[in-house]
Amino acid sequence: MPAGLVTRRTQFSSCDECRRSRVACDAQSSEGASSCTRCRNRHHACTFKWLQNAKTSNGGAKRRSRRGTTRPTSDTSSTRGSRVTDTSHESGFDPGPVNDLDHDIYRDSPTVTAMPESASLPWCPSPITNPEEDSRWLDTLYREGFEAVFGSWMGRYACPFLFGHNLADKYVSISDLCRHLDGCIVDTGDSQLVGRSRDIEQSLQSTISAFAARWLPVTSPEPNSDEDHCSLVQTLWRHARRDMLRVINRPAYRSMLSLLLFALTPIPEGISEDEEADGISGQACVHAALQQIQTLRARQRNLQFSGSKVSPSLKSQAIVTTPESIETSGFINAESTVYWAALTFDTSASLTLNCRSLLSSGLFGFESELPWRLVKTCAKMFDENARQWKQGSSDMTDERANQIIAAGASWKLLGWKVTAIFKEALRDGHEEAEVRRAYLAVVDSVKQFGIIYRPLLDECHKRMPFLGQQTKLRWFSLMLHYHLSILMLVDIIEATDRQDLLSDITDICIDAENTVMNTLAFGLHNTFTLKRPLDTIEGDGLKFVVHVGEDVEAFAAELKKVVGLKYGLGAWSSRGNDVYLVDGQEAQLQASIKAIEEFRQSSSNRNASWGRIITHSPESLREALQAAWLVVEVSNSDITNGQMLTEKCVPEQIELKTKVISELDALAPRDTIIASNSSSYSCSEILKGLNLRNETRFLSAHSYWPPETPEIEIMGHETTNPSYITLMMEQCKAHGFSPFHVKSPSMGYIYNRIWAAIKREALLAASEGAATPEEIDNIFKGVLKTPKGPFEQMDVVGLDVVLDIEQHYADARGNIPSAPREYLQKFLEEGNLGVKSGRGFYDYGKS
């Protein structure tokens, strides 16, 4: 690198040789007779001529002693007494003889506080009574929460630039690393830069406080009201937001982090839409941060100009100047780690927002980029190492679990990248060959994750009670983030109407949905404990539930499936029969039991002899099926069996049904009847492509709402054993139902064909403006004397379910008008699904 492009940073405690090489010097004193270790090993004279020259040129100017560490100690490890190793000491990020000006600024300056003055005004009674103390507490919440997870992604087990560097840190404090890199650049002789560095640090602390303030209500030792906490969070957010424009104009590694953290800070409750629009957005902050990292990595300031300003050529403030320095200082490792952090945000933004990546290529060229090639190489190395580990969960220590989680996080980012590229290919209208290539890259990435990492992550889950709380948090975060990209993949395929691509990933989609729900249940049943070091409260610390934040909202939006009340359970149980419930989630089982009890209490059948409700986990499904003469398919995650029938309350999707039928066929005894509760799919459509052990026992059994409706329709298919139809009719009569035999294949059975026509015409009338849904319901109920009109009934069923059924009719028949489906789609786009979402054609209030 030409010497004219760089400016050497000033150093204060190194000998001449160590200073020239930009490495740490352990000389005790410039006046001492002993040499530093490096000079002694090389048999060089350990001299300090540069110090003497500096004293002479400065006229003996007084300066402060700088013997402290280069930055505050990182603290992102488990709360069980272990601390994260300072990245300045485990030579993966050895800062060398960096000046300690930045540390002195943070330590000595009374102006560096995260608390705006308004945060402790009398009108805002809150835990923020001591700004300095509470600023440290907010910093602790940030470090033990966000950095505990994010730092794992930046450590030697996850960052591909550090993979295999045994001296690099396992967990990296990104804030401390940014401070270190900024400290390498600051020229101590420039008072303007020193003051600017103070401002940058203050902005970072302010942003960290705003970012962590969301957890104050559950960690505060004071019994403050929700209004007090809300006011404080708003104050911190506004203070940080006003500072973002100044942060944008102060390029630095800490400024980059401030922008990224603010982009992750939730907009507080109570902020109006007008106020939200009257300022910088989170997405703009991300883009500004990514531009800053590009500027900082360029290491030089040449002539730049735009329509508003011309910036003259300035000397660079980069620090690495010689090949020796690059090898030994660790600066390149530190800089590469920050780049990996920025690449994480960049890839996330390109996936979740409709924007292109700024730091990485898109559809054309990303395969040749170093980071992604390193990720694939590291995955192969990890797989080879993992094969040598002993099988079984007994060897799953906290250390190994964190290594697995971190390695999986690295592949997760590659999964995000290929999914974002596939999204780009569809969005930008590339040729089919390119779309297919991007799609296959995503599928291959998911399969590789399932082969290399998923079995080990499942072993971690089995051992979870014995692992540390931060290990649990890292596992929880990885599983949610990774499977979110799969659900987003399905979402973009559905949004672009590429149904031909869904068939290859049906199993992947089902697994992602199940994993998400199980992971959310895990998070809701675990707590995270922290202790304020200066608290006067007695006890072991403050406990609060793991915050899952916006990711959960994203997952809920992507799933688009709400498991509702199984009304048929109550109908069958009211006749004294046992009902078996099978679900992988304990919370869902308890919710189902509660729903059945509520039905029993509200039932008009006061003389009912209620049967038992027996629950099973999926592992005991085979055992539960042994005593059943009938099992009815409900959905991919809820299978009920035994002596009961049930109503389906999830969308009509053929992929889910075929999956469940296959599982039941494999587990149930050969003479057990398997029935589908589908509203519109015939047996033949469900069985198409399936290879069952005994398809003659398969039939359809469709019941209706409300729960006490006794009518049920039984329909077979070409190969159904007639004796099973007879048995079903007899058993239904014996248990109080009124069965009707559908004697030939009929899409929608008997009643649903009639109901489909009514429903479709009602939607068509509303879409044409002939009448409102309420008016149509009123005239319908007035003439036919029914308790509910068609729009009320559709709200109960669920508008997403109604749309799925209508779409199936349209696909099968081809002559169905599109206006009813388009009318329904408008409600779905606004999140109005009916009773289960609180609003559909009518407003039911949020549940």
Features:
eight-stranded mixed sheet, disordered N terminus, 6% strand, CD2-Gal4, 5 domains, elongated, two-stranded antiparallel sheet, 32 helices, mainly alpha, 847 residues, single chain
Structural account:
The protein has 5 domains: 3-57, CD2-Gal4 (Irregular); 94-300 and 329-336, no CATH class; 366-559; 567-745, 3-Layer(aba) Sandwich (Rossmann fold); 752-837, Orthogonal Bundle (N-(1-d-carboxylethyl)-l-norvaline Dehydrogenase, domain 2). The chain is mainly alpha-helical. 43% of the residues are buried. Helices cover 51% and strands 6% of the residues. The longest helix is centred in the middle third of the chain and has 30 residues, at 398-427. A hairpin with a 7-residue loop joins strand 10 (698-703) and strand 11 (711-715). Helix 15 (370-388) runs antiparallel to helix 16 (398-427). Strands 6-5-8-7-9-10-11-12 form an 8-stranded mixed sheet, sandwiched between helices. The chain has a two-stranded antiparallel ribbon with strand order 1-2.
The biggest beta sheet reads:
8 strands, mixed
Strand tally: 12
Low-confidence stretches: 1-12, 60-115, 117-129, 313-328, 534-575, 635-651
- The amount of helix comes to 40-55%
Q: How are the SSEs placed, and which strands pair?
A:
Layout: H1 16-21, H2 37-42, H3 49-57, H4 101-108, H5 131-154, H6 174-185, H7 191-212, H8 216-219, H9 226-248, H10 253-264, H11 273-277, H12 282-298, E1 304-305, E2 310-311, H13 323-328, H14 331-352, H15 370-388, H16 398-427, H17 432-452, H18 454-462, H19 469-495, H20 506-524, E3 527-530, E4 542-545, H21 549-559, H22 567-573, E5 579-583, H23 586-602, E6 613-616, H24 621-625, E7 630-633, E8 638-642, H25 654-667, E9 673-676, H26 683-687, E10 698-703, E11 711-715, H27 722-734, E12 738-742, H28 751-767, H29 773-784, H30 790-797, H31 799-813, H32 819-829
Parallel strand pairs: 5-6, 7-9, 9-10, 11-12
Antiparallel strand pairs: 1-2, 3-4, 5-8, 7-8, 10-11
Helix pairs in contact: 4-7, 5-7, 5-19, 6-14, 7-9, 7-10, 9-10, 10-12, 12-14, 14-16, 15-16, 16-17, 16-18, 16-19, 19-20, 19-21, 28-32, 31-32
